[in-house]
Amino acid sequence: MDNRTLFEKTTISRLFIIVTIPGIISMLVSSLYSIIDGVFIGQLLGADAFAALQLAIPFVIINFALADLIGVGSSVPIAIKLGEGDEKTASNIFSSALLLIFLTGIGMGAILFIFGGSFVRLMGADEHLVDMAAQYLRVYAGFAPLTTIIFAADNYLRICGKVKYSMFVNILMSVIAIILEFLFLVVFRFDIWSAALATCLSMFICAMLALMPFLRGQLQLRFVKPRIDRKVLSSILTNGTPTFLNNIAGRVASIFFNIFLLRLGGSIAVSAYGVLMYVDSITQPVLYGFCDSLQPAIGYNYGAKNHSRIAAIRRLCFLICGMMSLLMAGVMFLAKAPLIGIFVKAEDTGLMDLSIQALSLFVLSYLTRWISIVSQSYFSAIGKAKYATVISLSIAFVFPMIMLFSLESLGLDGLWLNLPFASLLTAILSFILMAVHLRKNKV
Question: For residue 355, which of 50, 85, 10 has the smallest C-alpha distance?
Answer without folding.
Answer: 50
